[in-house]
Design brief:
Elements lengths: L6 H12 L3 H14 L10 H12 L4 H12 L9 E8 L5 E8 L2 H14 L3 E2 L9 E10 L5 H10 L2 E7 L2 E7 L3 H9 L5 E10 L3 E2 L2 H16 L3 E6 L1 E2 L2 H7 L1
Parallel strand pairs: 8-10
Antiparallel strand pairs: 1-2, 1-3, 2-9, 4-6, 4-7, 5-6
Helix pairs in contact: 2-3, 2-4
Length: 248
């Protein structure tokens, strides 16, 4: 089974706080714009549907969503082109990091991200240096309250999911990224609320970190995510239960 890094559940918990920042709307607008390049109908464009789900989760205004779609479909003139990039590197204690980037200026973004890596004792590497440690999968997070793990396991496996694991107070469901919509729909058909559903880079194996190392890695991850051009950060670490409980 694929690894289940604790970062996914921690990032989910941060979502409510991050949504209060204007930066969250800006990042999701970019995500919608890029997804809409492949068509403005979410029923025919799963990537756009996932981006719109994120917009709804943070109560993004309808006008913002419509403008972002128009930029992507070419109905809005004079907009800056956005580039999708994947940056890779190592953080402290040998932790592998993958970053999904949306930028209008790669020559500006790369050195800024490199400086963040270096500030925390890591280094940004060449393409391919850590991506072999990850697989592109569908990731669904569901709050574990009032849910029976065995029943949820049967439900998601019947819908073609590959794995389910409890991390803190949430369940992480892993599936093929092609089956993400089907598995999400199966969960929701039982009136179970899906907290997040996205295509994610899932680590094949994770590094167990002690308390001090975990805190340092988390500071790096959070600093990277605060950068305007960083859409998502993925890693391959597990935290000690005491720190995970504190983060939850």
């Amino acid at each position: 089974m694929a690894g289940h890094s604790h970062w996914a559940s921690i990032k989910h918990k941060k979502g409510a706080t991050d949504a209060k920042k204007g930066k969250a709307f800006s990042k999701i607008s970019r995500m919608i714009t890029v997804a809409a390049r492949k068509g403005g109908d979410p029923d025919m464009n799963p990537k756009l549907q996932l981006a719109l789900d994120k917009a709804r989760a943070v109560n993004m205004p309808k006008d913002n969503v419509e403008r972002a779609i128009q930029k992507g479909t070419g109905d809005s003139a004079g907009d800056t082109e956005l580039f999708e990039c994947l940056y890779e590197g190592y953080g402290p204690h040998g932790v592998a990091l993958m970053l999904e980037i949306l930028t209008d200026n790669k020559n500006r973004t790369a050195p800024e991200i490199r400086k963040i890596f270096e500030r925390f004792g890591g280094n940004m590497g060449e393409a391919g240096c850590v991506s072999w440690m990850f697989e592109k999968k569908g990731l669904i997070i569901v709050n574990s309250s009032n849910l029976n793990e065995d029943e949820l396991m049967m439900l998601v496996l019947d819908a073609s999911a590959e794995d389910l694991q409890k991390v803190g107070d949430v369940f992480q469901v892993i599936c093929s990224h092609a089956d993400l919509g089907k598995v999400k729909k199966a969960i929701e058909s039982k009136n179970i609320k899906v907290e997040t559903a996205e295509v994610s880079w899932i680590s094949k194996n994770n590094i167990d970190l002690e308390d001090a190392a975990g805190r340092k890695v988390l500071r790096l991850m959070e600093t990277l995510e605060e950068h305007d051009d960083v859409q998502n950060v993925y890693s391959n670490f597990n935290l000690p239960q005491s720190l995970l409980a504190e983060m939850q």
